[in-house]
Design brief:
With 382 residues, this protein is α/β, with parallel strands linked by helices. The chain folds into two domains: 236 residues, Rossmann fold (3-Layer(aba) Sandwich); 78 residues, no CATH class. 30% of the residues lie in helices and 19% in strands. It contains 13 helices and eleven strands. Strands 6-7-8-3-9-10-11 form a seven-stranded mixed sheet. A four-stranded antiparallel sheet has the order 2-1-4-5. Strand 1 and strand 2 form a beta hairpin. The longest helix has 18 residues. It is globular.
Length: 382
């Protein structure tokens, strides 16, 4: 394995007056025997260095595919579109050979399941030093010392001994810390954290999130935190983008999103979070119905069939993502939550006895009353 000699050279003249990451109208479709699955459909945002963007949504909304699209970690059977610029350099059409100069040194990812992401037959130390020696022109001894320092920095006890362990010898929380150490090894400017707390108990979840936040501040990294749980990004993200059916349906600063949410899907996600002040055994609120078929998406708003505010217009026209006169707060809805239009639409549906998962026009197919098998909750994983 020969080290890279061109490490970072192409970024020496990177402009200082542009965002670290600019994503413009990115779309990703997977070719299947039945057609193209539109997993990501026209997503745009920008991210400054040192900032955190939270991407939130239930299973299948496209948030993980979006992260992999930006990093170029996709299989060959995909249809890609749009622009991805990193420090002003266009990456939208870059192939794997071009992206290798970016992986590790400029952008890294903490994957969702460390047990399947780590090599089960390679020692932990080898997995950390592999990227160090590939990207940086350093000796084996210095790479080993750096790996030890990295394990200590992510809070792994007896770090020197753990370098010789295999992944199966570590707990879930320790494996996730190893994944973070690998991601941070070459000092990236952008870190993707894809469901970094999945399958971990609550105490370890908090420790991992605190660790990511501390490492971000220490290294002045930008971070994209992908999760299904609004509670994870609360207090940790500067901005939040809520995705549904491959699209961003609401985007705002974190405080604004929680205090002045406008999209019914964002409201539904927040309502599905368990509340500590509720009595024991209180039934959790769920989002009725199912996400739409992305092979043949419905006409109009993709959330309309599950929305308690939906009107006839919602089933015929698709709303665009716009700030509606509130700079910095964008949402795609004709009848926003907390507005006179939204209140009137909600009251009209309730008065007519229209269930949340039904087409109020009567023209479309009515979604049956949800059962445990057909209920999508925010607690699912991607």
């Amino acid at each position: 394995m020969s080290p890279r000699k061109d490490r970072g050279d192409r970024f020496a003249d990177a402009p200082l007056d542009v965002p670290l990451l600019e994503v413009e109208n990115v779309s990703t479709g997977f070719k299947t025997p039945r057609g193209v699955v539109h997993a990501v459909d026209g997503v745009s945002f920008s991210l400054e260095r040192g900032k955190t963007l939270g991407i939130v949504g239930e299973s299948g909304c496209g948030k993980s595919v979006l992260s992999r699209s930006i990093m170029g970690l996709l299989p060959k059977n995909v249809v890609r579109g749009g622009s991805v610029k990193f420090q002003g350099h266009e990456l939208g059409s870059a192939d794997a050979s071009e992206m290798r100069a970016y992986w590790g040194t400029q952008m890294s990812m903490v994957f969702q399941d460390p047990m399947t992401s780590l090599n089960p037959v390679m020692r932990i130390g080898k997995q950390i030093t592999e990227s160090l020696r590939y990207h940086l022109d350093i000796s084996k001894d210095y790479a080993n010392e750096t790996a030890l320092t990295l394990l200590q920095s992510v809070g792994i006890p007896e770090a020197e001994r753990r370098l010789r362990d295999y992944p199966h010898q570590l707990s879930g929380g320790m494996r996730q810390r190893v994944m973070i150490a690998i991601a941070l090894a070459c000092g990236p400017k952008l870190l993707f954290a894809d469901e970094p707390t999945t399958a971990l108990d609550v105490t370890v979840q908090a420790q991992i999130l605190d660790l990511l936040q501390a490492q971000q501040r220490e290294r002045f990294m930008a971070m994209i935190l992908v999760t299904h749980d609004l509670g994870v990004v609360a207090g940790r993200a500067d901005d939040i983008a809520v995705m549904y059916a491959g699209k961003v349906v609401e985007k705002a600063p974190a405080r604004t999103l929680f205090t002045q949410m406008r999209h019914p899907y964002t409201e539904a996600l927040l309502k599905s979070i368990p509340k500590l002040n509720l009595p024991s055994h209180t039934r959790l609120e769920s989002i009725p119905g199912r996400p739409p078929d992305l092979l043949n998406p419905p006409k109009g708003c993709k959330f309309a069939a599950r929305c308690p505010y939906a009107q006839e217009r919602c089933f015929q026209e698709e709303p665009t993502l716009d700030d509606h006169g509130s700079p910095g707060h964008e949402f795609a809805c004709f009848y926003p939550v907390g507005t006179p239009e939204g209140d009137e639409a909600y009251a009209r549906n309730r008065a007519a006895g229209v269930p949340a998962a039904a087409d109020p026009t009567g023209a479309g197919e009515t979604t049956p009353t949800p059962t445990p098998a057909t209920t999508a909750t925010v607690g699912e994983t991607t």
